[in-house]
Amino acid sequence: MTGPEVGSDAALYRQHAGELVRFAAMLVGDDAEDVVASAFARCMSTDRWSGVENRRAYLFQAVTNEARTFQRSAARRQAREQRVTVDGVVEIGVPQPEVWEAVESLSIRQRAVVYLTYWHDMSDVMVAELLGIGAGSVRRHLARAREKLREVLHD
Amino acid sequence: MTDPMRDQIRSLIATIVEDAADPIPFEDVQAMTPTQAPGPRIAVAAAVVVIAVIGITALMLGGGSTDTDTVTGPDLSDPTPTTVTSLAPDSAEPADGDEPSESVEPDESASLVDGAILLPDGFHPGDAAEADNRLMLVRAERRPHEPGTPPQEDGVVMAIDQTDGDVVWVAELSDGPSLLEISDERVFVAHYWTGGVTALDLSSGDVLWTAVPQLPFEIGDGPDGRKFIPNDIEAGFDSLWMATARGAVARIDATNGQIIDVFAITEQLQPDGVPVYVGDIAISDRHVWAAGETSGLFRIDPESGEIDQLTSDQRRLGHNASSVVAVGADVLVGGGDPADASGVVSLVDGSGFEPVASTAFEDFATVVETHDRPAVWTGGVLRPIDPVALDVGEPFDAFFDDDRWLAPSDGSWILSIVDRLLIPIPHETDADAVRIEMSDFNVTLTYPNGWYLADSSLTPNLSSPTEIFSLASFPLRPGGPNCAQIPSRALHDMDASDVFVTLQERNSGADPSGYEPRPDNFGPTPESTENVIYDCLEPEERGDVGAIHWIRFTDQDRYFYVLVALGRDADHQEVSAIWDSLDRMVILPRE
């Protein structure tokens, strides 16, 4: 198994880091550059990396996964600090800038689908290919996200 | 078509991305390892996560971890876009016998998107069941209550027509309706707060009766006045069977809700003195099964009332048996150890009451029923599982999302509790496979439809080893002039595009050192080609054989030879199929 090709990785990072950070900003806000860096570091450390054909799509998926991991870790930290109520409902949340009121209503995957659809004008098939999910899943995520955003944006 | 929200959403995104920081320099990234990845510098910019635990604790335990990489799988939906349709209830009506609840919105509506059902806003279902093309969903909602008094939960059971998504009826119930079971044209609803049961008419939603079983001993006086918490309800043997969270299984008369019997599994305590927790029930051909969490698996004989226990520390049963699914007379048991994030699914023989096979997972495993096969819920994804081989298939879908709790219903749908999303589970696509159980040999074989399985031994002069089966892509003839162990006539009949396999078992006297453990995946190895076999075939008998692989392996303390012959021009699909047939082969111990 050959190791990571450092030279090409550097070029790849310089080529895509900007768009990945903007993408990650939609997912995790101010921690975007950390999430992208972490995702890229993980990619380079895996044996599979050298065999990945569509590295851009792989990076987008890696950033999405990293964002989900990041969110889960943060949610767990807060969950431990909160009491589980009798009916088992745990609410985790911190005050966020006003713009996050809308984004907070979306899951990570929904944020990703919304960003790629509305900011990059990608079709559901293109989004599906980039995120490694089915086109039907993209449409469902988008429908759910639009429903949530409609509620928040119209309040 | 103009999207009226487009500008608003783009404006929102612009606000976010314009503030995005510059990327970290590559040199810093290069210096990082995964364990050195930077932690968050600020508190999470996460969504408010609401984890709703709605009475089905067993499912929650099994589905509790969604730590998984991106899951890619087959897209279930029709590739053509569909129109989102608003589905206002056209005949929603309150059920008789219950006061209408303020929490029920008369204009609740569902939507269909690519075959999935998006439930009305705020409708977080606790359980689902289906019959006669109708999908039943239950939701409970807590009411404000006086301090010091038991909380009150009202709820609804909603019936949705699966063919068009219409809401057929809505029944409003009190006392925390939380679990559903459908049997004999009735919908049985278990109540979280009282342990009571309500029977509804399947066609109309009318309340037929409501009963609160009075258990003969203190098994579940929980906090806030709960009598006991039903964890599962199943119908079988002309009764309802309800699992409680504190160690009992109640048998209830399905005609009036009265208790017939209580099986006091609670007498068996966990090491810390807490009664056994009953998480799930299954009804097999002859028994009622209860998953007793850390205390293992319980089998109840409905005729005699006898209870047997299989403890978790016994071979091949997971540390924590939390789910159980009947497969004929047998059961699949799901569990694992949440502490170290390991999971296991075991196949337990219903007669011998013994685990006969198991398979491990990297995350806690929950087994569930779907409409045409069992499935395992592990690592945040739901996959079909072969009830004999315990092989898992591709995930049903790739929609699984973040920390949203997901719970599959016992039917055609995957149920996302928090996301209010129901995804259809496709019917089994492996319709072209043939499964043959060779009970004389305790071997089950699955192979492509259209192939030929020899109906008699191709090696009639062979006494030891014994031929178990011969399978090929061409018609098979027995015998041959040389070498009793080699089906030389069949090999002679091969065309260049054909494939062939035969399995033989050494009956006795095998030298274990000559047999490798059964491989995870059969395939050619440098050692598997044995030229001596060609000595059994005259040149004119070799037909179009391109390669022969001769593999010795041991499984279940049994010793086998397998011969795989590949035609010179056999295509990749045929070659893969022959190896796959061996991979899917199930070998059980000799009786």
Average pLDDT rating of chain A: 75
The level of helicity of chain B is under 10%
**General shape of chain B:** globular
Structural class of chain A: mainly alpha
Radius of gyration of chain A: 17 Å
Work out the number of β strands of chain A.
Answer: 1
**Residue ranges of chain A: pLDDT <50 for 5 or more in a row?**
1-6, 78-96
User: How many strands, what sense, and barrel or not for the largest sheet of chain B?
Assistant: 6 strands, antiparallel
Radius of gyration of chain B, in Å, reads 29 Å
Distance between the termini of chain B: 68 Å
The rough form of chain A would be described as globular
- What is the CATH T-level topology of the largest domain in chain B? Thrombin, subunit H
Oligomer: heterodimer
SS summary, helix count of chain A: 7
Task: Please report which band the strand proportion of chain A falls in: under 5%, 5-15%, 15-25%, 25-35%, 35-45% or over 45%.
Answer: under 5%
Helix content of chain A: 55-70%
Spans of chain B of 5+ residues with little confidence (pLDDT < 50)? 34-108, 398-405
For the record, the count of structural domains of chain A works out to: 2
